[in-house]
Sequence to fold (161 residues):
Amino acid sequence: MNELLLVATIAGQEVALRSSDVDSVVEIESLVAAPRTPAHIVGLSALRSRVLTVIDCRCSLGLAMCEADEADEADGADGAGEPVAACRQAVVVERSGHYYALLVDRVEDVIESRSELLPTQSRQGEGWRRVSLGMIETSRGILNVVDSKAFIAGPETVRSA
Fold:
């Protein structure tokens, strides 16, 4: 059976997320800093009266924070609860009753898979290996299917086999 996938770009790489894991796709327009949180949690935002914990997927991969985040830090966002103005595309997912916004470079498309999930066979970095569920054939070529839970957990954790 073909599975619907949301195609997004993260750190310049096209990846797929299972559409069954996706609540919505939004633009994050403002953030409130969340002091004393891991670096990949860039703040909190609101969506339809729900609090979203905003995750920087690049940082979760162990890569540099996205440019907008670095600009916010340079502007003096000091964690005092002041909103940080920015506009970012995010994929909203729900885990155990909590909502998370996964910051992505951009959302591309919704497509159907053309194969079952296959083992990852590339020489990805440790961060990519941690979030990868496997590879899948699509009309856009072979894409890495990523695990939203692994992005939420962050770079300090290792997924158990």
